[in-house]
Amino acid sequence: AGVTPDHMFRVWMTAYLMGCNTLLHEASQLFFYTQPVDGKRFLSDYGHKAAQFYAITRGVLEDRGEPLAPFAIMLEEAHGYRGDLRRVIDSDGRLSCTDVSQDEKASRRLLIWSGAVEATDDDWGLHRLVEAIWPEAEGQFRKTAAAYWRDGRMNSPVADGELLAEMRVSARDPRDYSRFLGTNGWSECFDFVAETIPEEALGKYYKTIILAGGTRTVSGNWSKLKAFMQGGGQVVASVANLVPETMREVGFDAQGQGVQSFAVGRGCLHVLPTPHGLRADGAGLSDEYLALLRRLHDQQVGVSYDGPPCQMLVNQRRNDTLVTLVNPTQTDWHGTIKVARCNKAPIAKLVDVLSGAEFPGKFVTVDKESVALRLRVPAGEVAVIAFGDGKARAADGQDPSNSSLSGASQTAGKLAEVLKAGPS
Predict the structure, then answer these.
(1) For the CA atoms of 382, 385, 390, 393, what is the dihedral angle to 10 degrees?
(2) Which residues contact 69 (CB under 8 A, 6 or more apart)?
(3) Which of 84, 93, 252, 327 could bond 333 through an S-S bridge, CB–CB 3.0 to 4.6 Å?
(4) pLDDT per residue as tens digits for the range 179-190
(5) Would the pTM count as exceeding 0.85?
(6) What is the pLDDT of residue 168?
């Protein structure tokens, strides 16, 4: 309830591009249709968004390719991590937080097994990693609630009667209080796996394994991880995740400084010197941990953006690379997408998949290593860009030359001409 149509569309697009095959929308008969008018029901604003989404997934994005997710965060099987607060209906019928989430004691605010046990240092290490990868989107929800329950008492906007009254009469934009979709500084390229994952699955689907939480390099896990690295995989761990036998085997220097890397077969083990790679105050990841993740992301995903926080997804198709930017904020996004030319489909055109329009060359910068695109994503909107041979079909079968894209004119120079001219 209270989620706007554009917010739902962003959620659906994210789920679909990340590999979701079935959408089961709760209470869709209430959301997608109006109340009866002369005995007839009509599509609501939500219904029109659902129809648009269906047309996209059966049209220009029927081929979504493979989500590019080379990272796996490995957790112990009984981790109990949730990363959110519980919600209850209080005695006055209002939505509020549980006593656990408002507890002054930090180890009780992070809900592990729904608050049945206190959080440990392992749990907080995992939580800080999740915060770094998926920070809360900017907006009023972050200011009034979500960013603070972990470190202080919850001040829920739901309990603010004046705020709710303003929303009911459209005096306050409810979209600024949306949640569920965070931003990311990398891309949606991180999966979660349990330490019980079969050895063959690690090498088949992933290039980097991040040991998090209470995962340890005990005998069963370590033999699996060694086989993964011998095949060329990368493993990231901290001193908290390595048992003494592993430290001795790889030659870890307890007096050493910075990240220590050890060759294992064709792969590598990267060891962070602080427990869970945290800063000294424990409130976030260390700079060296973030730098390591950035370097591995650049090598294995090869797509980055420069601009305000947003959400980015990358899909690999046979003839192109799809880059999706989701702007969950109420401000237009202006920035640059950069796609590495190595290990990607040949880049001859840049096409806006949803409209079919080709980006003019004046918005594109090309060098020997990458192709960069400057663009705008309107507030609350989604942009899907194909970096490749430009064979994406136009929406509804229309001629791409009739489409306009963020003010860019189709009559401007083509990217192909820029590529022929050589690096700029």
Answers:
(1) -10
(2) 18, 188, 189, 190, 191, 205, 206
(3) 327
(4) 556 778 789 999
(5) no
(6) 65
